[in-house]
Amino acid sequence: MRIGIDIDGCLSDITRFVLDFGTKFCYENNIKFNLKEDEYDESKALGISNENTEKFWNQYLVYYATKYPVREFAAEVINKLKENNEIYIITARNEEGLPKEAYGYMQKIVKTWLENQKIQYDGIIFTKGSKLPYCLENKIDLMIEDAPKNVIEISQKIPVLCFDNPYNKNVEGKNIIRVYSWYDVLSKL
Structure pTM? Predict the structure, then answer.
C-alpha cells in the first residue's frame, strides 16, 4: 500500500506550536490576542492581524521547520509501516511567503528535518494548492492528513486517516477515519 503523510498537524503538532509560540510572540510584542484553538488559520487561532501573523512566522518559521520535534512515536510507527508499505511525505511546505533566510531552502530544510527526526520514507512530494491531484498522480492508497479542506477533498477519492486536532473536530464523512496518535494510526491500519 502507498501511504501519504502530511507534515504539519500530523507529523508535528502545529496547534501546540502556534498556541505556545504565538502567545509568546504576542506577549513580547505587546499584541493583544484572542485564542481560538478550533481555527485552522493561525491569524484566526491567535485572533491577530494577518500582518502580525506574517511577523510571527518570519520570527519562528525557521525554528519550527528545523528544530520543532515530531509527535511522540511518529518515527517509530512510520518505520513499522515502512516494512510493508511505501511511505510518501506529501506537504504543502513550499517557497511561498518564506522569510528571506529560508527562501530557496525549504525542500532541503524539510528533508534534513525528516532525517534528523528519523522519519523514513520512499518519496517526498511538495504540493501547491489541492493535494488530491498529487495523491492520485502518485497512486496514494491512503492519506494521513489534518487540514479540514484536504481531508474532505481527498476522502472523495481515497480513504483518509484524519489526525485529530481542535480545528478538525467537525470533519466527518465517508472514507474519513479519525486517529488520535501514531499508535492509533497503526492500530487502524
Answer: 0.92
